[in-house]
Amino acid sequence: MDLAREHGLSTQAIRNYEDAGILPTAERTVHGYRTYTPLHAHALRAFLALVPGHGHRTATLIMQAINRGATEDALRLIDESHGRLLDDRRTLQAVEAALRDLAPVPQERGDTFIGPLARRLGLRPATLRKWENAGLVRPRRDPRTGYRIYDAADVRDVRLAHQLRRGGYLLEQIAPLIAQVRSAGGVAPLESTLRDWQARLSARGRAMLKGATGLDAYLRAREP
Questions:
Q1: Domain spanning 103-186, CATH class
Q2: pTM given for the model
Q3: Which terminal Cβ of the chain has fewer Cβ within 10 Å, N or C?
Q4: What's 2-86+205-222's CATH class?
Q5: Which of 155, 195, 152, 159 is nearest to 174 (CA)?
Q6: CB burial readout 19-49, b (16+ within 10 A) else e
Q7: What's the pLDDT tens digit per position in 73-121?
């Protein structure tokens, strides 16, 4: 099948794409064979171009919407995907700002407890306890009540962990970074992490541009 060979796919993958609504429904010959046209080629190219920037699920939903004639729904999905990229860029900026603002913090006892801190950041207390178990934060315990007490340094570590988690980093990746932040001059390792994060965001942005080109070609091919 020429359509499959062009993209190094199996004929079954093409059938699966059609069954999933990623490709428009193909006409059948009298013997039941599917007949694929240049329109199907445009659809496949558009889908494969969309995946790197928007992800497989969103790309699938976009193509399904277009193939059922709901172009506005497809455009809304694209807008939402761009919005998530913008949110991620703002998250990166927030992390960079947090690092720029890192400074020696007072070591006196604080009075922030797990409940108020979790509510302030929109987290669950269970999440903060999980981060503590992973070594991301080390609050002291009140000797009388056993309650966790977060001082200024702990709050800083929680905020950094929160930002990095939003950026897609795993706990095991974050722990050594925060450990370095705790030590004198420990922000240097974060610089390479942030550069990698920025590069991935830029790659997503470029991929979205390529996806838009492929999708526009498919939309034009569908015009009467």
A1: mainly alpha
A2: 0.67
A3: C
A4: mainly alpha
A5: 159
A6: eebbbbebeeeeeeebebeeebbbbbbbbbb
A7: 999 999 999 999 998 887 777 667 667 655 544 444 557 899 999 998 8
